[in-house]
Design brief:
This protein is about 50% helix and about 30% strand. A 4-stranded antiparallel sheet has the order 2-3-1-4, with helices on one face. It has 2 domains: about 100 residues, Ribosomal protein S6/Translation elongation factor EF1B (Alpha-Beta Plaits, 2-Layer Sandwich); about 45 residues. It starts with 5 loop residues before the first strand and ends with a helix. It has 4 helices and 4 strands, in the order E-H-E-E-H-E-H-H. The protein has about 150 residues and is an alpha+beta fold.
Length: about 150
């Protein structure tokens, strides 16, 4: 427990708002946290996803994750701003104990995956393993059928 706790706020925006408004919401909530003296560790837009159940007649939502480190007083300020916004349909803040999240940039992560040939080789190998296990299942099924035929004769 030597590591300091931090907070993760996940909020869902309405699916029908334009992308520039999504960015403005992200900046707005980051600024609210910074004004309250909180360190914003990471903010990630997770994209539009289907909801488990309809919320205010919406079946989809734009998910955004915000990691921040502070004394806990900032959570009430942030959640009040989200509650007053018509674009936020759900929000949840969780206190995390553990290593701090490392900031991730999506553009740098995507490029090595495309250019790294080792990762491309792994995927076909996994497919071959699955197909061999399926082939083995077929062979055992065929052998069982042959044995049943022999017993009947």
């Amino acid at each position: 427990m030597s590591e300091q706790p931090y907070y993760e706020t996940m909020y869902i925006l309405r699916p029908d708002i334009p992308e520039d408004e999504v960015d403005s919401h992200l900046k707005k909530y980051t600024e609210i946290l910074e004004k309250s003296g909180t360190d914003v560790l990471d903010s990630q837009m997770r994209g539009k996803r289907r909801l488990a159940y309809p919320i205010a007649k919406h079946k989809e939502g734009i998910y955004v994750q915000l990691s921040h480190k502070g004394d806990g007083q900032q959570v009430a300020i942030l959640e009040r701003a989200m509650r007053l916004s018509e674009d936020v349909i759900r929000y949840l803040t969780v206190k995390q104990d553990g290593p701090l999240p490392t900031p991730k940039s999506t553009s740098k992560e995507d490029e090595p995956e495309k250019t790294n040939p080792n990762k491309e080789e792994i995927k076909p190998t996994e497919d071959k393993t699955e197909s061999t296990s399926q082939d083995e299942k077929k062979e055992t099924e065929e052998e069982e059928k042959k044995e049943k035929k022999e017993k009947k004769e």
